[in-house]
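Hello,

Our lab assistant flagged a job as stuck in the queue for most of the afternoon. It eventually completed. Since we weren't sure the result was trustworthy after the delay, we are filing this so someone can double-check. Below is the sequence as submitted and the structure that was eventually returned. Let us know if re-running is recommended.
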Amino acid sequence: METRDMTNAPDHLYNLFATYDLKATKTQFGVFYNVTGDSLLAGAGISDNEFVPNIYQKQYDSLNVSVTQALGPIFRLKLQAKNLTNPYIEQVYRSQYSGADAIRSTYTKGIDYSVALSAKLSF
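-- returned structure --
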């Protein structure tokens, strides 16, 4: 191979987000949507005199939301949900010599929920 894609650099990355602040109640809302294109994880090579094709992670999306509420002048409470689409992520072997992609592994990232209480002190 004379050239190949850059490792861990998706062929495209799209981000859409919207935030909204309710000043009267000091509440902040956020919605964040991302699409990550195919990414090269490992370049082709030889192992035990056998050709091992490139390993790619196929395109997937994610959706995150957050709500932050001020609790007086010092404290803030933040509720967050990450990866709500819980995408099916596929890693494949890909080569111009072997035809169609061959599945290497599949998994889902799972959905993450978090609660945070923070304080801001000014001196």
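-- support follow-up --
The delay was a queue issue, not a problem with the job. The result is valid. Residues 43 and 49 are 16 Å apart (CA to CA). The chain has a mean pLDDT of 91.
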